[in-house]
Amino acid sequence: MNKETAEWPPEVKVFQERRGTIIQPKLQLREKLRKLRENSGYTQSQVAKILNCSRSTYTYYETGKSSPDLSTLVTLSKIYNVSIESLLAEEGSVTVFSDAGKLSMDRKNSSHIYELSADEMLLIGYFRAASSEEKEELLRFAQNVNCEKKENKGHA
C-alpha cells in the first residue's frame, strides 16, 4: 500500500488505474443498482431512458465500468425510492422507504411495479426523478387531461 492509499479509511477500497485513484465502497454500488432495478421491475433501457442516457452508459454503472455522477445518483435514488445514503451505504444498511415507513431490502421492494405497462413504468420513473415543481406541473397536467376527458364524455 502506498502513502496515498494508506490515508483512506478501512471501509473504502482504493484501486489504482492508469487514469488515477478510484475509490469504491466495500459493497459495490453496481450490485445495489442492479438489485434495486430488478426489484423495481425496470429494464436497463427503461432506467437509461429516465436518466436520459444510453443503455450502455447505464449498463456500465451496473457492471462497474463507470460510476454515475452525483446528479445521476440523486436521480437513481428517487427512481428506486431509496435515500442517497442507503444507496451509498455498506450492505445490510440499505433501506427502502415507503409511505408506511422503512422496509428492509430483504423484503419486497415498495417500488415494485411489475403489473404496470412499460409506458406506465416510464411515467412513474420520470415522476420520481422530477423536482417538486415538475411533479406539481405533471399532476396538474394529468388532472387537466382527466377533466377534459370527463367534459368531452358529457358532451357526447
Structural overview:
The protein is α+β, with helices and mostly antiparallel strands and 156 residues long. The protein has helices at residues 3-6, 29-40, 44-51, 55-63, 70-79, 84-88, 118-129, 132-155, and strands spanning 12-17, 20-25, 95-98, 101-104. A two-stranded antiparallel ribbon has the order 1-2. It has a two-stranded antiparallel ribbon with strand order 3-4. Helix 5 (70-79) crosses helix 7. The N and C termini lie far apart (77 Å). Mean pLDDT is 75; it is low at 1-6, 8-26 and 92-110.
Count of all domains = 1
Spatial sequence of strands, sheet with the most strands: 1-2
Please count the helical segments: 8
Annotation, overall tally of beta strands: 4
Q: Could you say what the CATH architecture is?
A: Orthogonal Bundle
**Compute the gyration radius: what is it?**
19 Å
Along the chain, the helix and strand elements come as HEEHHHHHEEHH
The main β sheet shows up as:
2 strands, antiparallel
Roughly what percent helix? 40-55%
What's the pLDDT, averaged over the residues?
A: 75
Query: What is the CATH topology descriptor?
Result: 434 Repressor (Amino-terminal Domain)
Q: Hey, roughly how much beta strand do the residues contain?
A: 5-15%
The stretches of 5 or more residues where confidence is low (pLDDT under 50) are 1-6, 8-26, 92-110
Structural class computed from helices and strand pairing: alpha+beta
Task: Please report the first level of CATH classification, the CATH class.
Answer: Mainly Alpha
Question: Termini distance?
Answer: 77 Å
- Looking at CATH, the homologous superfamily is lambda repressor-like DNA-binding domains
Oligomeric form: single chain
What characteristic shape results from the CA principal axes? elongated
